[in-house]
Fold this sequence. Notes:
Largest sheet: 8 strands, parallel, barrel
CATH superfamily of the largest domain: Glycosidases
CATH class of the largest domain: Alpha Beta
CATH topology of the largest domain: TIM Barrel
Amino acid sequence: xxxxxxxxxxxxxxxxxxxxxxxxxxxxxxxxxxxxxxxxxxxxxxxxxxxxxxxxxxxxxxxxxxxxxxxxxxxxxxxxxxxxxxxxxxxxxxxxxxxxxxxxxxxxxxxxxxxxxxxxxxxxxxxxxxxxxxxxxxxxxxxxxxxxxxxxxxxxxxxxxxxxxxxxxxxxxxxxxxxxxxxxxxxxxxxxxxxxxxxxxxxxxxxxxxxxxxxxxxxxxxxxxxxxxxxxxxxxxxxxxxxxxxxxxxxxxxxxxxxxxxxxxxxxxxxxxxxxxxxxxxxxxxxxxxxxxxxxxxxxxxxxxxxxxxxxxxxxxxxxxxxxxxxxxxxxxxxxxxxxxxxxxxxxxxxxxxxxxxxxxxxxxxxxxxxxxxxxxxxxxxxxxxxxxxxxxxxxxxxxxxxxxxxxxxxxxxxxxxxxxxxxxxxxxxxxxxxxxxxxxxxxxxxxxxxxxxxxxxxxxxxxxxxxxxxxxxxxxxxxxxxxxxxxxxxxxxxxxxxxxxxxxxxxxxxxxxxx
Length: 516
């Protein structure tokens, strides 16, 4: 005989259905204390999925739609299997698009020819979002704001590419074409492209990396080439501008970062804004970081005009992912020393989720790291409250280079984790879900179902089961509202909802053995 019993728990206490045995208040309180589930682990576990030069996706240009979809599914399956919780998907490598853009041509890294759509036509970004969300993964879109060409690009430039439609905004710089950040029309254009994606797609975040002004290029005499922005700087001076050229360049980037954050928060406040700058702000910050040998060092503040500490301190982002691509033991740029310094530059309490160079593992061409270095860096990160990590990139995890994926599963990511909450965006928790439990006597199975009871949308469900004194946590996508309790030893089950801001509801709890 089937039993259908609904239970809603208020303030963490059991309200059992009428058919359940009656307990004294003392018994109920004791049971509630015993059965209160632990809070789930909170840790950002992201991975960069690079499309420029076909680093991660697609494996080569010109694959069929079915082949591309299969590769994306394999990437997302591996991410879910490794218990990661976020994908950073590059959709604009060089003023082109891996999605159906009204402003920019299809990327040649997708189809082999700039401007050519996939065959049969589909939208890779729509597909990636849908498939990521099915697996409970966040999908963050990764943009390059100013790069307009790449040395590994081979196809003819499409007629609607900005280098063709607005050559006055583009500068030839060494092997690259670059949009001039000093032109307000460039800032407006890049912002328009990004906001189009934010408004039309159900993304969870948007991130820009370290390509602001270009990294220095050298001529045939090995001399650094000056970025050719005489025209835009002259316009600035003629409008009564007072800043030096370097300060003006930094202010151009500062203005863009602030505008991007404000525009996204106006359109969709739940969409997290991230920036992943070069790992050091300036040489000598902190003091333990050596700046003696400037010939070997890099000064992002002076060379790509990135005042990254300012963006963090002003709160013009929701998460900050410095590229800490050095070993723990590398004294001149030690991973823990730099992470500690960045954590102390954060008066607004934004997330700091350091990028780690997982692609160094098993890399035969450049520095070859042991896989344990990544595990040690993750362990180091966990010593800082609220920190997290983003792996660059997906390829070594797909290839399981020197067993790095196995090690992550066995030693670092044994259990699922929620993305840390962003309470500065929204603190409102969803209401507790209502639970239903039904036992099928024929199959001897028990099915738990639940539904929302309020207007606050739920992004994820946390389903926790208790056997004896041990709770097991499962994080499920919002689309799932049932769970098979196939272990006869389960004593209790708890379900709570989580918003896209990461705020968790109180749990609704059922004592299984007393309810059936």
